[in-house]
Protein 1
Amino acid sequence: MNATQLAANYWVAPQISIDDVAEAKAAGFEVIVCNRPDGESADQTPAADIKSAVEAAGLTFYHLPMNGPMFTPQQAEILRSVLDQHDKVLGYCRSGNRSSILYRAAIGEA
């Protein structure tokens, strides 16, 4: 898993796999947020499969899919709340860009 730290409690990554969930847990992540809609590519692991692995690992999962750079105020508010409540959050999408955009919106920079 290749994650980039954006803040004290937030990292972004490109698409993760089910195996990456165990790595995320070992690294101390508490929450995984998916910002990628299902069906963007044939090799993409569906969010429901990642969610199952995340919950089996005892972590929390949120699915806040974004179409390109577009997000809703509700998505930004949910991420803001998650960031306020947790010490280590991982957001992922195809490249990490959408997760970065939503983070900036959540902290009021977008």
Protein 2
Amino acid sequence: MMAIEGFVRDAEKLGVHSFMVLRGGETVAEGYWHPYRQDVPQSLYSLSKSFTSTAVGLAVHDGLLTVDDLVHEILGGADDLKGMRVRHLLTMTTGHDTESGESMAADPDEDWVRGFLSHPVVHEPGTRFVYNSGATYALSAILQRLTGVTLLDYLRPRLFEPLGFGPAAWETCPRGITVGGWGLTLRTRDLATFGQLYLRRGRWQGEQLVPAEWVDEATRLQVPNVDPTGSRESLDWQQGYGYKFWRCRHDGYRADGAFGQFIVVLPRLDTVVAVTAATEDMQAVLDAVWAHLLGPLEPSQVVGLELPAVTGTAEPREDLPGRFHTADPPVPPRRHHRPDIDQPSRIVGFAIVRAPHGWTVRLHDEHGAHEFACAPGRWVPSTMTTCDGVANPIATTGGWRGPTTFELCVCHTGDPCTRTYTAEFDDSGVTVTPVDSVGFEFTTHPVIRAWAVRGGAVRADVVRG
């Protein structure tokens, strides 16, 4: 019990949102920090890659390909890519010197396969490890070409349904190919189940779902990836790489994704740990696993966990202007290959009104008009529909921190990010600063200054640092 409590204390400081620990196939502990819930699938980022690897293993077993097949013979291309093979896609040893995603996104016809094939192969494939999500997309494209179905549809009857997974979704490229290297959403319990399947070498309830030989090959050290500078930071990213699985300390291996999405498998301890989180320090999360979960574990049920809610209960200054509309709001930068919910807001309207539960924030952006309930001291579950028509699960909290400062937090409960809007009011207008808890490329968005002018005229500017 003490071990689990110690892990929870550390995890809470690190931004962990959920976890599940299995030992001997039994649940030792499971916890969710409200408003995150066990029934809501989570964005897994690059943890998705391990599921793509598993699909390749099934296709190899089905006789559709081998790991020694040449990539250009399946996907085409102007040249032979210097002998690049399927195994090089699996081990991130494609011969590329940089991530291929930029070439994929730059293709004028949104043909990501052509973009991947055009990315310069600088080194002999198989000689150098370079992390490259485009390589996993190429595997997905290969599987779709050979099977005639998307990667998700290929895995559903062979893996997801037999394992009892909940709702699953997977992003696709503009041409309808599952992106493979990221974009999968599953529940935390599904992650733990997948880890248990691998711990049992692909066997589940008497049925061999994944060939044991593939599990062994996918999770053993295929290529070294030690930092050539001798740095000892991020030690668990220097233990070697398999087929879309990372080796880690304590003779374990893992699937992992950005901001702390993990499935850690420790065969020697008959243990699986699944984690979802929002952290920039992923090594610290693994360190917490090593510090608390390697010894004896007493079964315990973790309850009463909650992310901090805004507790501001101040009253606003009575003469503050109430509503603001931005005539020409700045166009914020885009995040590459990210869904609409993870993009910065282009705010065109903002208002705060009193409500029975506390306050309601009315925010109008490129997705439309939204109303966010703000009850100081608690989270209010809701949904937010983006311009792609997707109703994303969210929870909101907010309140007045002072007579001229309002804070709104929007937690995307299917994603690691919580977006905080801080509104600073003065006699002539409001300054709105949106900041994400985690994010690719940036976390601070353009700061909006909306000027409330008597008579309804409004001017807006971006505040530049």
Protein 3
Amino acid sequence: MTTDYLLEVRDLKKHFSSGGKLINRTAPSVKAVDGVSFSISSGETLGLVGESGCGKSTTGRMLMRLINPTAGSIHFQGKELASLSLNDMRLMRKDIQMIFQDPYASLNPRQRVGRIIEEPMIVHGMGDKSYRKKRVQELLEVVGLNSYHAKRYPHQFSGGQRQRIGIARALAVEPKLIIADEPVSALDVSIQSQVLNLLEDLQSEFDLTFLFIAHDLSVVRHISDRVGVMYLGRIVEMADRDALYEEPLHPYTQALLSSVPVPDPEYQQEQIELSGDVPNPADPPSGCPFHTRCPHVMDVCRSVVPEYKEEKAGHNVACHLYDDKHMAM
């Protein structure tokens, strides 16, 4: 493995057993993540987008080993996380923290905010009680709250304030990588921009690296350096932010971007409407997983899985539209 990246993920898979048996055969497993590969450089923000159920959050939770992968490798600073023992992985979480989607469910309602932020420092043996108390106060101010908020409970805060508390908790142990799992989707639009700007400021101040998971493409464009698009457990396109938004290659990405509202009443954009629903991950279609909804479907799409390859410099895509061999047929 190369050492140029802070994180390298290769062919990561998570198949959940659906349990039970069908007549004369075992029930099929749900392929929530089915061969995902990507890398993140130090100081970079990689956005991961897609419809609900495409495997984004499952991918993030596997990186934290909150759920164990079925197959694949996760290299963080040269260490293979997928094979670490639970105790060793617990130590690694000092460098890898997570911001969760729901800013209320992720905070213990029985603990005061000061204790919530202090707890990761206790777990990882950071400093004495006075050091931790001082750091809690500093972190609250860093995320835009006040030091006296440490004595309050989560229910005494708004949704945006609770998410700031979650961010402070993630920062407490001085991590190198933060996995942000839809951190603004549960917030009002006016609050979303405040939290996104806060994350950008913190990244610059603390030299953080982000994996930013979301389904809102306008949010991802605001904060990401590169963007990966997931569909049915696989990454179908990945490129630098500007390249992906200005010239998307995959039909799925094109459809997603066509549905993003543009705040200009004079701007006319043709919206691409996809037919059908997302296939059942327990019974995915053969060939290209997107072929059941693709407006450009060809015969080869129904039987052959497209190769995920670099079509342009730094721009990868998995689509037969860019396969000269099949286009010539």
Protein 4
Amino acid sequence: MKIEIKDIKETKSAYISVTGPYDQLPELFGEVVGYVMKENLQITEPPYGIYMNNPMEVSPEELQYEVGITFTGDADGEGKVKIKDIPAHQAVSTIYKGPYGQAAQIYHDLIKYTQENGYNIVGPVKEIYINNPMEVAENELLTEVQFPVMKK
């Protein structure tokens, strides 16, 4: 597994913030992607999820997360879909191959890497879903896992 510190460029995101079970994810991703397409915005990376708490520590009803997609263009949001600017930053990153529910196993390796290389994690984990589970087998799914970091 290749772990690296990446420079993330400033961008805009269409997103929905949610509290509740993860079973809402497919519908929420559909809403966000549908909004971006309807507005004719240029998508700059695959859809992502940011996870604020740990499903091993809270009930499904207490899970807090955000689903979104980055884009270029102008938009104001609509309904549940909000727009935000994401500032440039650094992130510790790796690509995970396999089922979504097992991607968390590499979080420990990313945390260890940051500690060993003089970085502090400064925000929640972000998972970028590189390919589509409707198009590839579960063991072929690719997920980029990132934690935002700052040098100590």
